[in-house]
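TA notes, week 10

Several of you asked for a full example with nothing omitted. So below is the full record: C-alpha cells for the whole chain, then the designed sequence directly under it. When grading your own attempts, check the secondary structure regions first.
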C-alpha cells in the first residue's frame, strides 16, 4: 500500500485522519474552507488558518474504475474504484478516495456496478488513518 506524501501544510490532515477525524483547513479570518491545504487563503490572502472538523458525509461527484496495466501493488485488486466526493458541509471541497464495503476493506470490495453519481456516502478510516467511503444506504 502506498503511504501519503505529507508536507507542512498537509500533515495536520493526516494526523487528524489517523485519529478517525475528517478535518479540512479553513481560513481563520474569512472562514472559507480549503483543500488541498496551503499557506494562504485564496479568497482573502490571509495566512491565518485553522482545522475544522467536518461531519464526514458527502455525495459521489464523479468516479473511475481503473483497469490494468497499473502499479503492481494495485493490479491484483483491479478492477477497483476511485471516487470524488463532494462534502455535504463544505460543497466546494472534493476529496478523492475509494468506495468500500467497510473500513479497511480491500479496494475491490464493492462491485463497480453499485456506484452512482450523487449517491450519499460517509467517511470511514482504515487502521492507518486512510480515509475511505461507504454508501450511506448500502
Amino acid at each position: 500500500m502506498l503511504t501519503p506524501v505529507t508536507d507542512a501544510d498537509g500533515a495536520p490532515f493526516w494526523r487528524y485522519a489517523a485519529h478517525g477525524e475528517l478535518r479540512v483547513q479553513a481560513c481563520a479570518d474569512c472562514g472559507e474552507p480549503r483543500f488541498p491545504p496551503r499557506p494562504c487563503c485564496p479568497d482573502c490572502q490571509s495566512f491565518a488558518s485553522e482545522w475544522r472538523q467536518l461531519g464526514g458525509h458527502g455525495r459521489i461527484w464523479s468516479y473511475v474504475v481503473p483497469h490494468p496495466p497499473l502499479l503492481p501493488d494495485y493490479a491484483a485488486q483491479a478492477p477497483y474504484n476511485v471516487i470524488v466526493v463532494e462534502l455535504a458541509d463544505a460543497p466546494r471541497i472534493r476529496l478523492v478516495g475509494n468506495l468500500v464495503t467497510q473500513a479497511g476493506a480491500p479496494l475491490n470490495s464493492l462491485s463497480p456496478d453499485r456506484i452512482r453519481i450523487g449517491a450519499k456516502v460517509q467517511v470511514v478510516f482504515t487502521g492507518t488513518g486512510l480515509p475511505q467511503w461507504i454508501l450511506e444506504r448500502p
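Residues 29 and 56 are 24 Å apart (CA to CA). Use that as a sanity check on your answer.
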